[in-house]
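Re: export button greyed out
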Amino acid sequence: MSALVHTITVTDPIGLHARPVGQIVTLVREKGATVTLRSASGAEGLATSALKMLALKVKTGETLAIVVESAGSSDPDTLAHDIERLINQG
Amino acid sequence: MELTGIGVGSHAAVGDVFLLTTSDEVFEHRKSTHTPSEEASILGTAIATTAATIRDEASSGDATTQEILDALLIILEDPELQEMARPHLESGADAPTGLFRALDEFAELMGDDEDFQSRVADLRGIAARISAWIRGLAAGPGIPAEGSWIVVAEDLTPLETSQFGDSVVGVITELGGPTSHTAIICRALGIPALVSATGAMTLEQGSSVLMDPEGNRAVVGGELSSATTAISFIASADAPLITVRANIGGLADAEKAAETAARGVGLFRTEVLHLSSSTMPSVEEQATLYTEVLKAAPAGKIIIRTIDAGSDKPVPFLSIPREDNPALGVRGFRLTAEHLDFQRSQLTAIAQAINATGRDVGVMAPMVSTVSEVREFAALCDDAGITQVGIMIETPAIVPVMADLEGLLSFVSIGTNDLSQYLFAADRMHPHLGALNDPWQPGLLRTVAAIAESARKLKIPAGVCGESAANPLLSIVFAGLGIDSVSVAPSAVDAVSTALSAVDSTTATKAAKRALAASTPNDAEAAVRALFS
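Workaround output, generated via the alternate export path:
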């Protein structure tokens, strides 16, 4: 099965920061999913690692690809949109 | 001994000083007496155990604190962090040393990421508890569950405030301001606090202290009976001395405001509607949003502020580049140069919403500092068919040139938060500068008086829409200074309306005179308070 790639623009005023990152780890673990975030520069971080996601240093206005390799107990499209909502909740 | 600062809350309390400091032993770098694998396993267990304890302590707290703590714990629990600690363990460090070094390395990797750097102290605070657990030292602050304690610290983090139980009856911090984390949490918990209290750390462990937030002080050995009593105003007139309006950011606020005594809206922050729009909303989309809000807003005049964005408050569709000094950068009306199309479309949409609802609406521009900018804004409003034009008074530069605005404006509104930070050149968010942003500062009050006088000469009304007006005593002072209306958060409307219905103009003028005569913020507040107690 090929991965679903959902590309978003980060609109949260402080970019991809600690709070949503924590919520993403919790969500992805809960669903037993495999998700990677890829920044515009091509750097990647597994969505189960808060440190790796923070290290992408994604700022407001930058694009970010949410790559859902497997959605676990969720479906790929819903999971990608749930993650987008966590990132751009601010 | 007496400490002065900025009081939070209104009830007094007496308790014993509990100094929040962490033993240096927790942080010291030590060599391991075990193998690297044993240290790695100790670290894993310590992180898991401490995280569970902290989650348990926070479980009774507020949701925001829980979310922030959870995010911090998830960072510390990340196996990547233990991987980063591993090389240090291999070269003979003990588990806590490896953890501190890994955190330092990660913080360095994050560079100038402001959100992360603002969390580093909290992460180190949690790491300190992990270290204390491993080394068998007194873990964390360990505030006893019994007794009545006044927690004293430089400043408090969410990790620390989340451990507050019933035994904490007061808080004193050296740093922080009226809007700092400590002040917000203490207000939410109903615990009196004194922030920005110079000399707090010289208080002696265990000494009895009176918290007197209404008096903006804490007194060593003070008795409850000597505390300043809160003033309770009883309305004697049918209507407040000056109009009280509500500050809103969207439909939900407008509905909330409509349930209060607010006579209209004194500040509708339009940027709030657009913070998550990634493409520029069309005139029709904007008009629909504004119409909804105008319909729901409380009866009375409505003042709409055009978009107030900046690089620290970005609106995605107006690409605003990062700036070193966002408060002094391209923000508010200054965006017009780059984004004239949007400015025009917003004014057109507002005009359509006014026509659709028939509401009495004034439109004002934020962050204006020259006469030319006022002329430009007035011309844009004229093009859009908007007749009631105003500006925010928030830069000191516009104050001395107000006389030149004759015929251009229908009203002005003072944003005291920004006016303070620009008058005092003191960042509103800076933990050391809370005292300079105190709304009782004579420099601010005398500037407000000058603005009211200039507006009187222009024969236009002047309002105050900053946080400061939410303080009932200050709202009375503003009325006495000649301000025509105040606008406050919906939650503060009723208290301010009651206070302004309890005084006549003679009393308000007297309050204003007393405030203007004082040379320090505390003297100004005390002199005004004395009028009512």
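The interface with chain A takes residues 67-68, 70-75, 78-81, 84, 106, 109-111, 113-116, 119, 275-276, 278, 312-314, 316, 319, 322 of chain B (CB under 8 Å). The button fix ships in the next patch.
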